[in-house]
């Protein structure tokens, strides 16, 4: 009823709200969905990835990230950095060119679109006349050469993107200077490649699709030399000294050509089909890298024997007698080689191969023996198996953090020790305020532990629950075990593996106690595992217990999946979290809620049939409670997807998750006709959509009743030490909320620590509340006498929280999908409430208590509820008075899986999936904000284009500087830059002068 | 018994004072009574608040004839508030005194023994083309029984006629509550749900709102069939209809009327303590300051909700920034099925 006292505009509160709350989408973690183009600047040491939705993302040293979005949302086809500039050009599939710049603003660099441009042909010419197929930014930084489908090469001035018509190179002009007998007009159709001579900027190499290659002299506007390839051309690559170049072809061959001024029409030096003699697929890109010892690295994409390995996505590296074909898990978009960028250096000396595949980024260390992969600090492939749930733990104690890292490092021994080779830019963001873990559960039964403290979401440790169970797939069945003589020498790289052996292994709920290191994990087939962190490998037996949640119900038959078979006898577990007990729910329905109390050593779990409490100290089931309504046949019989309302949303989310897999699978089969398949898919989707729109959409209006399906579905479980029976004695309690709006409260008796093993834990039902509106209960919380939420177990013991107020009266907050209600305790009577659905038509999807600190004063903070609704809005609601503070639109309401994937942190941040592979991070707090803040400076350029190579220590020195210098740094950027790159002493001097000047 | 006394016509005072005076004059200080009077048309009309009291005094010519009935054995049918006639006549929710003595008097029991199923409310404040229907789901076994769909309607806007998206009733389930009332029909456009406008909301949102309010659903519709609309200012609606009309500020035709009335009524959660019997959760006592803030308290009995509430009061509710409160006075022995509590309105 307080709702009617409309909040008057209290100016003090309004001001405070501004100091507390602020909504920002800060950074995208993970791997970009549907990447379509890759670019790299050896000068800036930055990598750029373009996507099919028109996004462009730049990555450098860990923490250095930029993002831009093309307004058109068209596929990015090509990305080219302007040599020695903080600029890049993108080509979209609508044939538009966009010039982007990194500019410093407010102390940090920003990526901005400067110009856009679409090439226009003469009136009446076909669109193919201006369809750009190849882009060459000239080293003079003044012009771009644009090769087109018609064979014409246009010259565009930078940065204005104006066509210089008098410099256009037409096929006619080229043909005039080539002997007639060799070529016709047709041989100059479609420019496939444009490459500048590495030593002579006045010469460019033009490769036409039909095989003709022309070395064009820009100065004299004539062909210096021409080369007649017999095969359809795919790409060209210059050798470092400019004496030779290499061309790769559609038939899987590559050819070396000599360049000399006296031979107008050169013959090939060497023509090789590396995976011949049988027909091979095209080699679409090739690198020829020279080394000091004379043995070159030949690195190329594709070229596999068409019949037997035509479906592989490979990049081959040949170095003398060493040859490996890296076999990728998904289509390779593009790749580049990191090599010595110093033009004065005599050899390329490649250090790393960076390959962008459709679903992941793979970096291969070419300097270490065996060419191991490098563990990327960002662009993690979150979806290597589909994410099924996530759990966030803030403020991890250092001890646990180190133990998890050490467990993870033992898993990563096969990675190269090479420092991350893409290290451009400087991260100037303040260090993350705390150590945060994001745990993701996956369909294949793994849990991945991510360092979510900062801008780079980094994999720390991977836990697999598969070992506990007997699955159809033999874990020793390794696709990689190829014999020595195997040809081609394929080697699988990457972690993307969306094919789950058994969907029952899927992880549904995770609960980690950061103080004790206990972890509870629950899955699709009703399995609940309790684990403990162990720093050593161990072999032990996992205890089993069954929890029959249908206890007194007779005559029902479960028609869903069977429970997982467990492995008998001791199981070997690697260092890390090792399961010691398995509780199997019967029927083996998906576990829908989970809670762990590490102090009481209890784990509670719920399914659509009921819930149970397990004592993992004594390894004894304490009790089970069946929440089923007798008429609820659907819940009894089978998996969730049979229910209508849930069915729809689940199906939608699954379809979304699987879409990328399906498309990649199809593409694999179709090979070269990938775009056709996509088009067909898009058309199909559209048709389906239209069909849906035609069907009359109507909704039934009916009050919920106790007989509705899945009312027994346990949505939330909560442990609290509170006043359940009377106001003088508090006791441990377990609370459960169901889909039908029922809340059960159980009074627990946990023996004191010294008799913990001797006496059983007892439980007794104390209360049952039926909310009359019968909406699903999604959250239960007890507020102490000061209206503060009760602390987590062991939080007080670790001095990280004030002990709860046990003097004043406690309150119970029940959050249903439709309402927030506060009740008094121990006598439950309704105190106040906030109706959400009745007034706004939206429903609560996620709710968490979050602590908000003021950005103005350090000593003020308050607890509020952060709520995500089914419309994708985020609302902040005050405690304990349940007043709406602020509302932000966050996720599109159509993005069902995005909304379902959202997790809030305890300090007003959150994550949700914007694609199967990417988390968007957002912040509601003014105080806790993790976002990229970085500077990309122009490295020093000497007259002969000499580029300084920054070393790690210099980078470190630079990193420390901005904090001290702040604003001044920008003005003196050039000076500083120079100094920093050369000497640390100079840096200190400059700093001291700057400080003196201030 | 018959008493005769005088009042200062120019200063009638407040209803409460008058009520106190009546109790005093009749020497029945602790007996709840219903007060009625006969207006110039000979209709028996109730006096239960300041407005109709003032109206009664001002129309007295020169005598004001007052009828007092003991509440327990009051003949409510005299006021025509029963729910039975409502189904037959959409106009009967406007105060319609049953003054036709020639009509055979149907003896029906007191309204407490009936449960309202549906009603048309706020006729006096809504445009004639709209209809606000209240469905009482609570306690009925019948399903609400209707479906809604997306559609579009033509509106007059500053830019001329425009097609705007709207929500429409698409189907009535035979035998459902919606159908049995006869107040809702297929293709009626839904304008509001429990006082919240639906324009700009999606079909799913409106569905959720209706389901969340399903225990006491108030839908404002623009009926597809506009022929059964209330025709106002006609004599048939009785003098009271006219009087409310005249007291209505003309500029605020589309305000929330009775909507606050049903709040809280649907919210009595059931709690089982230990293994005891189910019981309704008692409301925590309202804070005293909220009561003090009320300058005027009127107790309206549930049966007076439909039409007895003068519209001037409703307007007052609204203009005072919707500071209105209601709470339930626990009534012993009331069945939980009768959910409407006593209301305090400012």
TrEMBL record, chain A:
Q: Where are the WD repeats?
A: 69-103, 433-451
Q: Where is the sequence biased in composition, kind Basic residues?
A: 659-669
Example GO CC term: the record gives: plasma membrane
- Composition bias (Basic and acidic residues) maps to 956-973
Tell me the compartments it is located in.
Cytoplasm
Alphabetized UniProt keyword annotations? Cell cycle, Cell division, Cytoplasm, Exocytosis, Phosphoprotein, Repeat, WD repeat
Annotated Lethal giant larvae homologue domain ranges read 272-372
Region of interest (Disordered), ranges: 659-680, 945-973
Biased-composition ranges, Polar residues, are: 945-954
Q: Does the keyword Phosphoprotein apply?
A: yes
Recorded GO MF terms: GTPase activator activity; myosin II binding
Query: Subunit notes for this chain?
Result: Interacts with GPSM2/LGN, PRKCI/aPKC and PARD6B/Par-6. The complex is enhanced during mitosis. Interacts with DCAF1.
Instruction: From the Swiss-Prot or TrEMBL record, give the protein name.
Output: LLGL scribble cell polarity complex component 2
Organism from which the protein derives = Catharus fuscescens (Veery)
Q: Which gene encodes it?
A: Llgl2
From TrEMBL, chain B:
Which named protein is this? Answer: PAR6B protein
The PB1 domain sits at 1-71
User: What compartments host this protein?
Assistant: Cell junction, Tight junction; Cell membrane; Cytoplasm
Q: Which family does it belong to?
A: Belongs to the PAR6 family.
Write out the biased-composition intervals (Low complexity).
234-252
Please list the residue ranges annotated as the PDZ domain. 132-225
According to the UniProt record, one GO cellular component term is: apical plasma membrane
Q: Which gene encodes it?
A: Pard6b_0
Q: Where is this region: Disordered?
A: 228-267
Species this chain originates from: Catharus fuscescens
Chief site of localization: other
BP GO terms, sorted: cell division; centrosome cycle; establishment or maintenance of cell polarity; regulation of cellular localization
Query: What does the UniProt keyword field contain?
Result: Cell cycle, Cell division, Cell junction, Cell membrane, Cytoplasm, Membrane, Tight junction
Query: Which superkingdom does the taxonomy of this entry point to?
Result: Eukaryota
Sorted alphabetically, which InterPro entries does this protein's record hold?
PAR6_homolog, PB1-like, PB1_dom, PB1_Par6, PDZ, PDZ_sf
């Amino acid at each position: 009823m307080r709702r009617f006292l409309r909040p008057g505009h209290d100016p003090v509160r309004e001001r405070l709200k501004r100091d507390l709350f602020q909504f920002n989408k800060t950074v995208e973690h993970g791997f970009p969905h549907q990447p379509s183009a890759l670019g790299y600047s050896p000068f800036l040491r930055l990598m750029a990835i373009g996507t099919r939705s028109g996004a462009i993302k730049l990555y450098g040293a860990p923490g250095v990230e930029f993002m831009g979005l093309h307004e058109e949302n068209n596929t990015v086809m090509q990305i080219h950095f302007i040599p020695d500039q903080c600029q890049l050009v993108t080509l979209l599939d609508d044939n538009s060119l966009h010039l982007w710049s990194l500019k410093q603003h407010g102390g940090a660099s920003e990526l901005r679109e400067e110009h856009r441009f679409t090439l226009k042909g003469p009136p009446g010419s076909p669109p193919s006349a201006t369809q750009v197929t190849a882009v060459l930014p000239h080293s003079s930084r003044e012009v771009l050469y644009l090769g087109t489908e018609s064979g014409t090469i246009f010259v565009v001035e930078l940065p204005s993107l104006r066509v210089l018509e008098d410099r256009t190179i037409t096929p006619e002009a080229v043909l005039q200077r080539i002997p007639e007998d060799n070529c016709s007009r047709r041989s100059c159709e479609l420019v496939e490649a444009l490459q500048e001579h590495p030593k002579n900027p006045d010469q460019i190499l033009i490769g036409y699709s039909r095989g003709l290659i022309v070395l064009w002299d820009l100065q004299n506007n004539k062909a210096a030399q021409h080369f007649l390839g017999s095969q359809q051309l795919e790409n060209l690559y210059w050798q470092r000294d400019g004496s030779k170049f290499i061309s790769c072809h559609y038939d899987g061959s590559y050819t070396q050509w000599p360049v000399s001024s006296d031979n107008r029409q050169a013959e090939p030096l060497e023509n090789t089909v590396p995976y011949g003699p049988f027909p091979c697929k095209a080699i679409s890109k090739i690198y020829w890298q020279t080394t000091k010892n004379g043995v070159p690295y030949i690195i190329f994409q594709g070229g596999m024997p068409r019949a037997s390995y035509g479906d592989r996505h490979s990049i081959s590296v040949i170095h003398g007698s060493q040859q490996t074909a890296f076999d990728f898990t998904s289509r390779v978009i593009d790749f580049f080689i990191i090599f010595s960028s110093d033009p004065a250096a005599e050899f390329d000396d490649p250090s790393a191969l960076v390959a962008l595949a459709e679903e992941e980024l793979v970096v291969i260390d070419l300097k270490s023996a065996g060419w191991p992969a490098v563990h990327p600090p960002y662009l993690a492939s979150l979806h290597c198996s589909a994410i099924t749930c996530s759990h966030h733990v803030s403020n991890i104690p250092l001890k646990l953090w180190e133990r998890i890292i050490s467990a993870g490092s033992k898993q990563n021994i096969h990675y190269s020790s090479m420092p991350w080779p893409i290290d451009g830019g400087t991260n100037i963001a303040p260090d993350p305020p705390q150590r945060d873990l994001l745990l993701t559960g996956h369909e294949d039964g793994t849990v991945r532990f991510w360092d979510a403290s900062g801008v780079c979401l980094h994999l720390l440790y991977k836990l697999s629950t598969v070992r506990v169970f007997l699955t159809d797939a033999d874990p020793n069945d390794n696709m990689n075990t190829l014999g020595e003589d195997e040809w081609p020498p394929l080697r699988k790289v990457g972690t993307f593996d969306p094919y789950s052996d058994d969907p029952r292994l899927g992880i549904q709920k995770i609960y980690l106690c950061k103080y004790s290191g206990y972890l509870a994990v629950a899955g699709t087939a009703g399995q609940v595992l309790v684990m403990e962190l162990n720093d050593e490998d161990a072999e032990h037996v996992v205890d089993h217990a069954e929890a029959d949640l249908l206890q007194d119900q007779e005559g029902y038959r479960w028609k869903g999946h069977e429970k997982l078979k467990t492995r008998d006898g001791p199981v070997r577990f690697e260092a890390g979290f090792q399961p010691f007990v398995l509780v199997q729910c019967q029927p083996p329905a998906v576990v829908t809620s989970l809670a762990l109390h590490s102090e009481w050593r209890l784990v509670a779990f719920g399914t659509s049939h009921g819930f149970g409490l397990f004592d993992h100290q004594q390894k004894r089931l304490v009790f089970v409670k069946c929440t089923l309504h007798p008429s609820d046949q659907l819940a009894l019989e089978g998996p969730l997807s049979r229910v209508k309302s849930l069915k729809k949303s689940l199906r939608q989310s699954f379809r979304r998750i699987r879409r990328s897999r399906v498309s990649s699978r199809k593409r694999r089969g179709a090979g070269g006709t990938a775009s056709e398949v996509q088009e067909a898919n898009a058309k199909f989707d559209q048709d389906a959509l239209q069909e849906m729109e035609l069907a009359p959409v109507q909704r039934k209006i009916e009050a919920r009743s106790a007989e509705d399906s899945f009312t027994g579905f346990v949505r939330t479980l909560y442990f609290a030490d509170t006043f359940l029976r009377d106001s003088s004695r508090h006791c441990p309690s377990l609370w459960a909320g169901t889909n039908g709006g029922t809340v059960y409260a159980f009074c627990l008796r946990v023996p004191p620590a010294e008799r913990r093993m001797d006496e059983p834990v007892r439980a007794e039902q104390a209360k049952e509340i039926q909310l009359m509106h019968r909406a699903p209960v999604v959250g239960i919380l007890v507020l102490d006498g000061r209206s503060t939420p009760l602390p987590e177990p062991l939080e007080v013991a670790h001095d990280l929280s004030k002990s709860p107020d046990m003097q004043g009266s406690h309150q119970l907050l029940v959050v249903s999908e439709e309402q927030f209600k506060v009740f008094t305790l121990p006598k439950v009577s309704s105190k106040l409430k906030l109706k959400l659905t009745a007034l706004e038509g939206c429903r609560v999807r996620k709710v968490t208590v979050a602590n908000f600190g003021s950005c103005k004063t350090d000593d003020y903070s308050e607890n509020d509820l952060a709520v995500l609704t089914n419309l994708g809005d985020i609302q902040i609601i005050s405690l304990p008075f349940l007043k709406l503070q602020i509302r932000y639109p966050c996720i599109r309401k159509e993005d069902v899986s995005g909304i379902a994937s959202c997790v809030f942190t305890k300090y007003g941040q959150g994550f949700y999936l914007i694609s199967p592979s990417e988390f968007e991070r957002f912040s509601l707090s003014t105080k806790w904000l993790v976002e990229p803040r970085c500077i990309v400076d122009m490295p020093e350029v000497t007259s002969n284009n000499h580029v300084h190579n920054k070393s790690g220590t210099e980078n470190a020195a630079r990193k420390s500087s901005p904090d001290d210098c702040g604003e001044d740094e920008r003005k003196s950027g050039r000076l500083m830059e120079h100094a920093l790159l050369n000497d640390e002493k100079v840096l200190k001097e400059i700093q001291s002068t700057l400080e003196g000047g201030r | 018994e018959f008493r005769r006394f005088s009042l200062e016509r120019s200063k009638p005072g407040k209803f409460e004072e008058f009520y106190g005076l009546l109790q005093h004059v009749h020497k029945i200080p602790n007996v709840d009574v219903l007060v009625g009077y006969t207006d110039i048309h000979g209709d028996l009309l109730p006096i239960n608040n300041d407005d109709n009291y003032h109206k009664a005094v001002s129309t007295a010519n020169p005598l004001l004839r007052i009828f007092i009935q003991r509440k327990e054995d009051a003949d409510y049918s005299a006021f025509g508030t029963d729910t039975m006639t409502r189904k037959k006549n959409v106009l009967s929710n406007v105060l319609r005194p049953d003054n036709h003595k020639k009509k055979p008097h149907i003896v029906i029991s007191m309204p407490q023994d009936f449960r309202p199923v549906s009603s048309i409310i706020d006729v006096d404040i809504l445009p004639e083309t709209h209809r606000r229907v209240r469905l009482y789901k609570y306690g009925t076994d019948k399903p609400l029984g209707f479906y809604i769909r997306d559609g579009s309607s033509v509106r007059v806007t500053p830019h001329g006629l425009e097609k705007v998206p709207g929500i429409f009733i698409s189907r009535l389930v035979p035998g459902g509550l919606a159908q049995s009332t006869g107040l809702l029909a297929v293709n009626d456009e839904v304008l509001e749900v429990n006082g919240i406008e639906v324009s700009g909301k999606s079909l799913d949102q409106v569905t959720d709102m209706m389901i969340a309010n399903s225990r006491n659903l108030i839908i404002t519709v623009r009926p597809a069939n506009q022929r059964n609309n209330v025709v106002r200012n006609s004599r048939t609606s009785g003098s009271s209809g006219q009087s409310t009309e005249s007291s209505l500020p003309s500029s605020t035709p589309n305000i929330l009327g009775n909507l606050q009335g049903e709040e809280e009524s649907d919210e009595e959660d059931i709690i089982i303590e230990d293994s005891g019997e189910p019981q309704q959760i008692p409301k925590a006592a309202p804070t005293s300051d909220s009561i003090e803030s009320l300058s005027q308290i009127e107790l309206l009995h549930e049966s007076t909700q439909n039409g007895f509430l003068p519209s001037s009061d409703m307007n007052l509710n609204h203009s005072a920034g919707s500071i209105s409160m209601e709470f339930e006075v626990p009534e012993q022995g009331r069945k939980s099925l009768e959910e409407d509590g006593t209301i305090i309105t400012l």
